[in-house]
Design a protein that fits this description.
The complex is a heterotrimer of chains A (about 450), B (about 280) and C (about 325). Chain B has about 280 residues and is mainly alpha-helical. Chain B has 13 helices and no strands. In chain C, strands 1-2 form a two-stranded antiparallel sheet. The chains are: A alpha/beta (about 450), B mainly alpha (about 280), C mainly alpha (about 325).
Chain lengths: ~450, ~280, ~325
């Protein structure tokens, strides 16, 4: 009861503040001169996991403490960060976020979203200028050209709307590399040296020859056809859905993925029993009893997925260059339009994504490849960034060049559904449950169901 | 003699079938509990029938995870299930009694109507339901999970058949002659007679409500109001980056233990209730 | 005459007693139903975070649904339901008959009765998750079968149509056969022992007894079981949804109607979901009509059966 009364009071205060704001010049808030006394007491952060929370706790200097259950972080000035975590799967996170964003205008000050996170797959939906749910960084008082000068360009482009206005920022880049088992490399190639192995996997044709070698010894090159998907989909030249259109255009590269995956699967280079990613079988493929040679993963994949699923001795894995540069994932931090804590939000975004020292600390503690060009160059040359899990190898040596060469694929607001449903529909084809045309049909059905405004799907000739 | 022999054969078959079915039923519980005692790394190595040592560890992980407030969820589920079971059985009995014991103009029509809506799936109205409760300001609250259970056609039908078989109208007449009010008659005389039927339907609707996923998933938004099935579902999709199957199994275990305890405590009464009173057609 | 006058004076109580039920139904079911029907004539969905519509489009949603795979999903639902329901009702009848047959000496009867209902207590979503993990290609079931030497390489249960459907059927069976057994047991116990005694005197075997006495007399409850099971079947959602990642894999062969509805609800496509709901409503209406006819029919048959039984006994004690 008390809480509710307090919330009502806060709402009243905000309304009063708004009314007062009407009188003065409207650009006041934009220039970031809002006094800290007007800041709300609660910062609501929407996310799909505790990745951002753990990093913020570790490096944000204003953090005082976090409650045991991880739902509330208290800052030194008494402001509380409330973490609202909903899982990504089945679109739950976005549903809840959308609901909250649509009610943002009517929400009490302390219930308003202040910060939300998005992933590369759907960042475009939220940076859309028309929807205007993520504030332009300039409105917060952050100048991307100077404040974020050390960031990788592709991350800035990813977080920008159609007009090029940046509406989000990230602390991490996700250059994808090839992670392989040292013992299998020893067994098959007689060496586990990353440079030598890198030669064996440097492009698709070489990799195919290597796959044959691995197969001869009873090993699979990758676990699942889904493992290679990002490499293709990240290099498409046209967005899945062009702006203002209602047609899904399937890129020729994606069809190449279908063709190659089928070929690889039938040739026995992939483990037939592993269907897709992030399921029980895929996890097991990362265990010590598995026959899978390598995974294509970005830095977070190594730390969060491979590491916990590996049950053998540490130091059994190593990274090398992928057959083709690609980017996978990336969490963007957005300031929600209508936030009652613009100062705090600005401070958090700057501290978490623009401070080189902070970012380097994240890299050291969490193995994230962070968003600082100069910092990452230093890390690549600095042996203290070597990882035990990778047998003392400094993985940054391989991340950095990939990151510099990443051409971010053109984005659309429909990417998540396209990526998910495409893989799902063609799984049936790979497993021989349906023929090629049926898989295409199924994709068309599924995508139209997910996005009612999609009217047709165009396939490359 | 012959029938005795046949009986013995039948008895043996019955035992074999029963043991097989019981094995099937218990097998899954066993795997669940064994898995809940093992760490993620253990589980990675493959299945083993021997319990591990991570029981407490997993339990601690579950209890301390703020993004999946399991114990809060259990409390919510208890509230929702208990209230709906109570409302549902009481009002269904009331409605059944109203239609059974009284003669009035729309009686026949009302009965036909209820029978007509009996097979209507909840999901059909889900969308409108969501809009309605949003307009009523009940979005993200437990009330819309509880109140609609007042109108449960299936339970009504069960109660009605039960009344037909076990409530002689003369008893109601006798109560009237004694000067008992209609409401009092229902509460004091009819309800006790219906006890067995109420017990059965109470546990059925408790379980149904405990396990309901569709409606709560639509209605509930905030973490502290989530019921167990939503938590389980979100957990299944929970972050792959934070993978810990041991914890997931533990969470399911924690979620079903309360209901199993309630059931085991009541099972004697429930099964006895069913078999004693039963529905006598 | 007297009785009629009295019942008239009590009529208002009848109205009062059924009022809560109807008020509740009108608010929480009828209004939403009308709302749903209304929006089925509109184009109304969410694109990204923008709302499109509502624009009146007449019957277009209905027409495009007919052009979709809706009928296929209806077929899937029916198949999945039958796979689960047939063994469920057969086993439940068998068990109920055994449990109530005093001539059979079953040890640990109480234990079995308690155990068979247990699976019904686990929520479908958790149960499906468990199945998903256990029947995965490298999961425990496959490793057990392989170590027993029954199979030489892992079976891809969830990769084949028959595997997925059987698993859904198996789960539905396991979850509901205990419940049905208890219901049927109650019905059989409700039959007067006199009838059974009479039957025994006439020297009928247990099989005869089952088919000529028990079965006809419990038909109302069988009908009730059928109705509730049809409702459950039409509403089948959690189990296939979780087992197949919401896509009814492989090739959408395990996609049920409600999963189809759910995918429209998920994309907030109110118009399409509305039209689909109306179709579902019509289907349940038709089913309901048949079931209602059946129950009415069985009533008289059951009475006839009872009469026969009583006649066989040679007296009416009641």
């Amino acid at each position: 009861m008390k809480k509710r009364a307090f919330a009502a009071l806060m709402a009243a205060v905000t309304v009063a503040g708004l009314l007062a704001g009407c009188g003065s010049s409207g650009s006041d808030e934009g220039s970031g001169t809002t006094e800290s006394t007007e800041e709300g007491k609660v910062i609501n952060i929407y996310s799909w996991n505790d990745e951002f929370r753990t990093r913020l706790e570790a490096v944000y200097p204003e953090v005082e403490s976090t409650s045991d259950d991880g739902t509330v972080t208290t800052l030194k000035d008494g402001t509380e960060i409330h973490w609202v975590i909903n899982p990504n799967q089945d679109g739950v996170y976005q549903q809840k976020l959308d609901e909250a964003l649509m009610n943002q205008a009517d929400a009490a000050a302390d219930d308003k979203i202040d910060i939300f996170l998005s992933e590369t797959d759907y960042v475009y939906k939220y940076t859309d200028a028309e929807a205007d749910v993520a504030m332009p960084l300039t409105d917060l008082g952050i100048d991307p050209d100077t404040d974020l000068a050390d960031q990788y360009d592709f991350t800035k482009i990813t977080a920008s709307d159609r007009e090029g206005v940046q509406r989000g920022s990230t602390w991490q880049c996700c250059p994808g590399v090839l992670v392989y088992r040292r013992d299998i490399a020893q067994d098959v190639f007689g060496t586990d040296d990353p440079t030598a192995v890198g030669e064996k996997v440097k492009d698709w044709d070489t990799l195919k020859a290597t796959a044959e070698e691995l197969k001869a010894k009873g090993y699979y090159t990758f676990a699942s056809y889904a493992d290679t998907f990002r490499v293709y989909s990240n290099n498409i030249s046209e967005p899945w859905v062009a702006d203002g259109e209602t047609t899904v255009k399937v890129d020729p590269l994606i069809m190449d993925w279908v063709e190659n995956s089928k070929e690889w699967l039938d040739a026995g280079y992939l483990d037939k029993t592993v269907k897709g990613q992030f399921n029980d079988d895929w996890n097991k493929a990362m265990g010590s009893s598995s026959k899978v040679f390598a995974f294509l993963l970005p830095p977070w994949g190594i730390d969060f997925t491979l590491n916990p699923n590996w049950d053998g001795d540490t130091g059994a894995w190593a990274v090398t260059n992928p057959p083709q540069e690609y980017n996978w994932g990336g969490s963007y931090i957005h300031a929600a339009t209508g936030t009652d804590n613009p100062e705090h939000v600005k401070d958090i975004i700057l501290a978490m994504t623009a401070e080189k020292d902070t970012l380097l600390k994240i890299s050291q503690d969490y193995l994230d490849f962070t968003n600082t060009v100069s910092g990452m160059e230093e890390a690549a040359a600095d042996d203290t960034y070597a990882s035990d899990f990778l047998g003392g190898q400094n993985a940054y040596e391989y991340y950095a060049p990939v990151a510099e060469n990443i051409q971010i694929a053109p984005l659309s607001a429909y990417d998540l559904g396209c990526v998910e449903l495409f893989q799902n529909s063609f799984s049936d084809y790979f497993q021989g449950n349906v023929d090629f045309d049926k898989a295409k049909d199924n994709f068309e059905t599924a995508i139209k169901e997910r996005y009612p405004d999609i009217t047709e799907v165009q396939w490359p000739e | 003699m012959k029938s005795n022999k046949a009986n013995r054969v039948q008895t043996i078959i019955a035992h074999v079938v029963l043991i097989f079915l019981s094995f099937l039923c218990l097998f899954f519980f066993y795997i669940l509990i064994v898995n809940a005692t093992r760490s993620h790394a253990d589980l990675q190595k493959g299945f083993s029938a021997i319990p591990g040592t991570y029981f407490l560890e997993n339990l601690k992980n579950v209890a301390n995870d703020g993004s999946f407030p399991m114990f809060r969820g259990i409390l919510n589920s208890l509230i929702v299930s208990t209230c709906s079971a109570a409302l549902c059985t009481y009002f269904s009995s009331l409605t059944a009694y109203g239609l059974y014991a009284y003669d009035f103009k729309i009686k026949k029509a009302a009965f036909t109507f209820i029978m007509a809506i009996l097979v209507m799936p909840t999901q059909v109205t889900a969308m409108g339901f969501l809009r309605l409760i949003t307009n009523m300001g009940m979005y993200d609250s437990l009330l819309p999970l509880i109140i609609p259970s007042i109108a449960s056609p299936a339970v009504f039908y069960f109660m009605y058949s039960y009344l037909q078989s076990s409530l002689p109208l003369s008893l109601v007449e006798a109560a009237r002659i004694d000067g008992s009010g209609e409401f009092r008659t229902f509460n004091r005389i009819v309800l006790p007679i219906m006890k067995p039927a109420i017990a059965v339907q109470a546990i059925f609707s408790f379980v149904g409500s405990w396990n309901n996923y569709f409606v709560p998933a639509l209605v509930i938004q905030s973490k502290d109001k989530m019921t167990v099935p939503i938590l389980i579902a979100t957990l299944r999709g929970a972050d792959y980056m934070n993978f810990d199957m041991g914890k997931i199994y533990m969470m399911i275990t924690v979620a079903i233990v309360p209901i199993i305890i309630v059931y085991l405590l009541l099972s004697k009464y429930i099964i006895a209730g069913v078999t004693l009173g039963g529905v006598k057609e | 005459m007297k009785k009629k006058r009295r019942s008239v004076s009590y009529a208002k109580w009848g109205y009062i007693f059924i009022l809560p039920f109807f008020i509740c139904f009108f608010i929480f079911s009828l209004i939403p139903l009308i709302d749903t029907i209304r929006y089925s004539f509109f184009e109304y969905y969410r694109s990204g975070i923008k709302e499109i519509g509502p624009n009146f489009v007449g019957l277009q949603n209905y027409i495009s649904l007919l052009g979709s795979d809706m009928l296929k999903y209806a077929g899937n639902t029916l198949i999945l339901w039958v796979i689960g329901f047939i063994p469920q009702i057969v086993v439940a009848l068998l068990l109920a008959n055994w449990f109530t047959d005093i001539r059979l000496k079953i040890r640990g009867k109480q234990f079995f009765k308690v155990v068979i209902y247990l699976p019904n207590l686990i929520m479908a979503s958790a149960f499906a998750m468990l199945f998903f993990a256990m029947f995965s290609t490298n999961g425990p079931i496959n490793s057990i079968l392989m170590s027993l030497g029954w199979i030489s390489e892992p079976i891809d249960f969830l990769g084949s149509v028959i595997g997925t459907r059987s698993l859904v059927g198996l789960m539905n069976f396991l979850m509901w056969f205990g419940n049905t057994t208890i219901m049927l047991m109650a019905a059989i116990m409700g039959i007067s022992q006199d009838i059974f005694e009479a039957c025994e005197l006439d020297g009928c075997t247990s099989i005869k007894r089952f088919f000529y006495i028990t079965l006809p007399l419990i038909r109302p409850i069988l009908a009730y079981t059928l109705i509730t099971s049809i409702i459950g079947g039409l509403q089948m959602f959690d189990v296939p949804q979780i087992l197949t990642n919401g896509q009814g894999n492989p090739d959408r062969t395990s996609m049920t109607l409600i999963m189809f509805l759910n995918s429209h609800l998920e994309s907030r496509n109110y118009g399409m979901a509305g039209a689909l709901s109306v179709y579902l409503f019509i289907v349940s209406g038709i089913l309901c009509f048949f079931v209602y006819r059946m129950t009415n029919g069985t009533d008289s048959e059951a009475k006839a059966a009872r009469k026969r039984a009583k006649a066989a006994k040679g007296g009416d004690r009641r």
